[in-house]
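Team,

Forwarding the record for the chain on the shared tracking sheet. I've put the sequence and predicted structure together so nobody has to dig through attachments.
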Amino acid sequence: MNKDLTIGKPETVLWRFCLPLFGSIVFQQLYNIADSLVAGKFIGENALAAVGNSYEITLIFIAFAFGCNMGCSVIVSQMFGAKDYVRLKTTVTTACIFSALLCLMLMVFGILGCDPLLLLIHTPTDLLADSALYLDIYVWGLPFVFFYNIATGIFSALGDSKTPFYFLAVSSTSNIAVDILFVQAFHMGVAGVAWATFLCQGVSCILAVLTVWKRLKQIKISRKPAIFDFDILKKILVIAIPSILQQSFVSVGNIMIQSIINGFGASVMAGYSAAVKLNNLLITSFTTIGNGISNFSAQNLGAHKYERIQAGFKGGLKMIWSLCVPFCLAYICLGKYLLLLFMKQDLTAALLTGRQFLWILAPFYFVVAAKLAADGILRGIGAMQKFMAATFTDLILRVVLAFLLSNLTGSPLGIWCAWPIGWTIAMMLSVTFYRKEYRKLSTLPGSIEKNTGRN
């Protein structure tokens, strides 16, 4: 069901909209977690390390899909908030055509460039074949990744966060079962893990696209919409390109960090692979709630209800912080047992690596949560330069400090310490930028602050 996010108490509306998004991303992350869990539990330490090593490269492709998602989602949200349904439908078809062309180019790059990229990040020889095999299969499934992201972006833009949750709940749990079937019953190894993800993502993508197409057909319009519009494409790209660059540079930064980690051997790689999956589960959940805040902000921007944007930030921050508490406690107190889910046996070196990583990062999840809530507002109102500045500050600091501190300490411990420093400085920038942008909005026509004389 489509939902107007411009009416109702902002905090309540945001909670009802974002909680299904949170559930969706938890199930989305089960795809990647399941791959590592099955690889480590049923194949071995090297398989866990190989899947984790490949995962950092797959994030580059996901970055482009995420950018298309955000570009389409924010512009559709603005059109929906403004009740401009003709241009809304043109936005959807324009985004689909652009995404298809971009996906095709990335598939060519993936087929030709993944093996050299694995060598570039110093993948150990005994892991190279499995890493390359996993990536080759993943690349052929890129159309499913792209169009599923477009579909979920449209659902979110229309205020529907429940439908993607239902698709993901079924497909991700099915993925775990198919992973185990292919690895245990068919003895397919790492290839079985990759093919299971390919098949389950394909089914969820097709169902999501068909459902969103049916939903759009129910929106009545006065005239036939254009299939493609260059002006709308420019609006999409204003949001999509910074989002793509942000996620791509984060992925490149993670690959550079992975190259440092690879120098410490398979045990450290395996421990990091398990721990970073747990970390990404939470960070990606926060990012998804930030996307929900973007949709909320974009709809209210389109409806000229600027005062609701500040209430959305406060409500979103409260929500993210409330989710931080149980995860932080679980990672600090139960980290060992969570990491053992990915391993056949008690691997001392791998466990120590993973536990150190979680202990150092967990207390700072409250910091990065505040950054991502502020980023959601900046993206939703189109303040992309400021959004990029804060994101790149975080990335550059983390990569540079990872190199410096790992050399200084002679251990992976220095790499883990780079995360909290980058998060803290970037958070201060994002929140400062959000406050400045909101002060600008408060002076625009229709703002309660302007009409009552408040600044």
